[in-house]
Amino acid sequence: MESVDILKMAVRGEDGHHQFRTDVTNVDALAADMVAFSNSEGGKILIGVNVDGTLSFLSQEATRRLNQLVSNAASQSVRPPISPRTETVSVLGGLVLVVHVAEGMRKPYIDNEGTIWIKSSSDKRKVTSGEEIQTMYQASGVLHGDELPAHGLTIADLDTEYFKVFFERTFGKSVVNHEIPLPGLLQNMNLMKGDVLNRSGALLFAKNPNVALPHCLVNVVVYSRSEIDAETCVDSRDILGKIADIFFKSMGFVLGHLGPEKTTSGSTASGGRKVPQVVLEELIANALLHRDYFVPAPIRISIFRDRVDIMSPGNLPHKVTVENIQWGNAYIRNPILTSFATKLLPYRGHENGIVRALKAYPHIEFKNDREGNAFKATIRLPPLDNL
Description:
Elements: H1 3-12, E1 18-21, H2 27-39, E2 43-47, H3 60-76, E3 85-91, E4 94-101, E5 117-120, E6 123-126, H4 130-139, E7 149-154, H5 160-171, H6 182-188, E8 192-193, E9 196-198, H7 199-205, E10 218-223, E11 233-239, H8 243-257, H9 277-290, E12 299-303, E13 307-313, H10 322-325, H11 335-344, H12 353-360, E14 364-369, E15 374-380
Parallel strand pairs: 1-2, 10-12
Antiparallel strand pairs: 2-4, 3-4, 5-6, 7-9, 8-9, 10-11, 12-13, 13-15, 14-15
């Protein structure tokens, strides 16, 4: 880093990625700053810069002391430990120590007091919300929404015949004659813990999963125009049940409200669609399998005159972006559900659903709504007079 970079940062002032400190003598205060950056998007702590952007400078002896302080704080006062990088930069005849803190991969990080800090603009704040903490565990891969218990649903709520057919078709063995009893099979398949089904077990195989998971459904609304308006709503439905039932009923509902698709000869195909069926299959399956099951909200499908919007709870996790999902990059948010997807849905897996949908029909747009904590796929439909 050059001196001009320090001067530019000082002029811009503190923000969510830059923290100024005149000097640091308290290891706990330094640890709190590093925890906040680790739990957020990473950043730099500039020691030797006043909060107003003026330079206070450090001596060589001070930089040696601070380097040791940073090392001690990172290894002894941050849990799990982190590995910040320090850099001493000469600026206008003085020294500034830059502490580079990367975004952590094992969130949440805590200080010696057990406090979770995150950045909030140029300051930091404590995290006390259980939902925020769960999201951090989810981002680090420690906890997944699909493995949380579906409280109130036990093996007695299992659709036993449905599970038996699935098990025999998938593994070529009978549940009845298996050497492991049914509860053991469910636990081995990561569908149950103790005597309670987890969310995967409930959504995949319970007779009525919505008893315990009322938000795990698809809400479909049809509008006669191109905007949301109660007066133009012509049909709506809440689609409940097992995940396979939700998928097929959602597909049937959407296809039933889309008009015919032109054939190459110019005529309209009987029972045809404006968009290839594979597009709807991939995007609806993607919403069901990759939604954030920590968020208590349904998947929403809105059918307008000019488009279909598929809104899935939870924005894209970690460093996944709208740009890179279109090139096959993915993050498996619900690994248990996804592992069974190819056996229950016409879902092809391999994290290429978005790529496959775009190849079949390029008129699809994606929006990662971080403020609204949602991900939206918009399928643009051709004008009705073109059909």
